[in-house]
Amino acid sequence: MKICKRILCVLLAVLALLCGSGAADPQTVRADGEGSFTINPSQGGISTFSLNNSSNLNVNNERYDKFCWDKTNPGDSSCPQLGMGLKYIVGDDKNPDGRGNWRYVYCLEFDKSSPEGQLMTFVGFTNRKVAYALYYGAVYYGQTCRYAGYSTGDWQMDYFVTQMAIHILNDEFTLGALRKSLDHPGSAANDAEKALAYDRIQKMVNDANVQGNYGGFTSDGWIDMGQGTFSVGGYQDSWSLADGTYISGGAFQADFKSYYGYDYREQITDYRIEVPEQVTVSKSDEKTYSDFRLQIGKEQFENWQLTGKSIPVKVTMRIPRYWGGGIYRHGNGIQDVCFLTWSQAGGDATYSASAQLNIPKVTRELTIRKQDADDGTALSGAVFSLWAYDGSRYGKKLKTFTDNKDGTYTCKGIDYTQTTGGWFLVKEEKAPDGYSSRYVPENSTDQSDYETYGGRQLHMTAAGVAFDGVPDGTVFRDEKLIPQARLEVKKYDAVDGRILENAGIGVFEWSQSEGGYRQQPLQTLTYDRESKRYVTADPLTRTEDNQGKFLVEETKMPEGYRCPFRREIQISRPGLTTVTMDVPNYPVRAVTIWKRIRAADVNWAHGNPTFFFQISGKDVNGEAHTYRCFVELTEEDQKGEYLEKAVTVSRIPAGAYQVEEEGTVLRYILADIEALTDNVTVKKENLEKINGVQKIAASAACDLTLKDGSVRFFNEKVMHDRYTDNQVLANHIILK
């Protein structure tokens, strides 16, 4: 957007550094009554009011006669009269470019009358020395000389200093004539004031005659504005909202300074402000170079906030390049009027300044709530995360929500630029303990989002963040999990670890109403060859009646194994869990009992010596078992000096057992016992001696958990009487 405003100004003072030359077009000044001037724009003239070339501008003539020595005597060039009017443009403080100041108007030819009511015509430019005085001297009503070295400290006296220097530099009288007039008796000025005024006038005149002081002028006396400095400041990189519009902070302020750093903004004739199309410029007043701010509509501003935006501002100004003291003349005894004005032939000096305002990228904050789907109880302990969209999927995790421990979860710094189109996904990675990992969909849109992306879509726009299409989308509701369990049973040989396949395992359900486990199995586990486990076909589910209690029982054992396992389980943890069991099967075991006696002690006529034994104990399941056996010795059992024979009891369930000799055998007593395997521990106790032989009480403890056992009993014959030995006939029961 460009803002251009053309101001043509009547000025006396300016800021410029410069060199160059040019000729002036004719300009006309017309008198319209007492003390008023009208600038004629048709002649290429100048106007002190922007875009209003028909303004009537009155010139005020305020008397300043401090140094006047005789009001009735006009004086002459040898001793000029020093009374004068401080002439300024009335209403100039209302000029939009005037900033509340009145510009001075200087008159040449001191010995002539004022130009009120007369037609004044432009006739050319003064010499560069007069332009020098106009540039560095007093410029505005109420203000001292621009250059402090020429100032007396009194603004009215500074006007006097400048006016007198112009007369001298215009060759109307000399410094000597001025000195003479100052020393003339009759003025109201005291000696100190006279000396001060003369000193400043002398300095201005002398400096105007020094070639080296014209650094900002061309060789033929024009002030060159092509060497100035232009900048824009005062703005702030901040924004405020008012009436639906965002307004930039501070204010852009033009700053154009000419040679020696004098403010020369009022001579700016063209001022263009370039900003992006969606930005408007609001000027503070009607000045061509007035301060301005940027304005952006709320919707546009907030759209730019999503990504952040730099607002470039370029200000271009133009000012007539060559300036000098323009002379307007009537004749007929009316003194010439001198303005500081410009030549059209010199063209313009153009300056640009750039600035940049920034709309900061906004980030959003989102707080969601987690609730029980049934009663609305606030739930903590969940884990939510935010994911970015790449145009086809949500593949990048950005951050994790903070669990506020009160059922709310907060995600800060949600950045529109981290995703495509402002789309994000809120995903629940972990539900609170005891709740379903999949929240309850609010509607079909929510259901579809979950099926497609695994979460709920979140959209960030200029208005904020929202779950489009999902009412009350900030609430995620979870259902309590029903306690369920999958059962996996590993069956293996307790000795070598081999997996056993041919078992039967049933699951029996507890019944609160029946007061026990049901007779029929709820499920029979099947063998899964891939995992080598017995598994449930369906999860075991806790109900009000079963209270989560189940009995897992081996209903069929692999061949060669005893001691079926039986185990109770309790399902209480919400959700689906897996219960694993490592269940060893123990092969049946055998106990071998050896009997030894001396061969010389046997009288075969008495019969075969026979001995009885008892094996008793508990298997690994805690069930008791008792077995009985006997050994009948015959002549074929002799080995050296001993008769020795063994009996083996097999298919004993694995467990801990005790082996004892049972009953009394005629003529024989138990004299010793010996463990033949390392899993057998013998215990002996001495009793009495019979016929010199020590009788003992003894037993053997056999650990038949993992291996078979063997023990040997030794008997001594201590009596020789008429009774025969025992003989036994064994009957065998066959179980089918």
Characterization of the model:
The structure is a single chain. This protein has 6 helices and 48 strands. With 736 residues, it is mainly beta. Strand 10 (229-242) and strand 11 (245-257) form a beta hairpin.
Please name the defining characteristics of this protein.
736 residues; disordered N terminus; nine-stranded antiparallel beta sheet; 43% strand; mainly beta
Write the layout of secondary structure elements.
Blueprint: E1 28-31, E2 36-39, E3 56-64, E4 75-76, E5 79-80, E6 84-89, E7 106-107, E8 119-125, H1 128-136, H2 155-169, H3 175-183, H4 191-208, E9 223-224, E10 229-242, E11 245-257, E12 270-274, E13 279-283, E14 292-297, H5 298-307, E15 309-320, E16 322-329, E17 337-342, E18 348-359, E19 363-372, E20 383-389, E21 394-400, E22 402-403, E23 408-415, E24 423-430, H6 444-453, E25 456-461, E26 464-466, E27 475-478, E28 484-493, E29 504-511, E30 516-517, E31 523-524, E32 526-528, E33 533-535, E34 540-541, E35 549-556, E36 561-562, E37 566-570, E38 576-587, E39 589-598, E40 610-619, E41 624-632, E42 638-639, E43 642-652, E44 655-662, E45 668-675, E46 680-690, E47 693-703, E48 709-717
Parallel strand pairs: 19-27, 28-38, 39-48
Antiparallel strand pairs: 1-2, 1-8, 2-3, 3-6, 4-5, 7-17, 8-16, 9-16, 10-11, 11-14, 12-15, 13-14, 15-18, 16-17, 19-23, 20-21, 20-24, 22-23, 24-25, 25-26, 28-33, 28-34, 29-30, 29-31, 29-35, 32-33, 35-37, 36-38, 39-43, 40-41, 40-44, 42-43, 44-47, 45-48, 46-47
Helix pairs in contact: 1-2, 2-4, 3-4
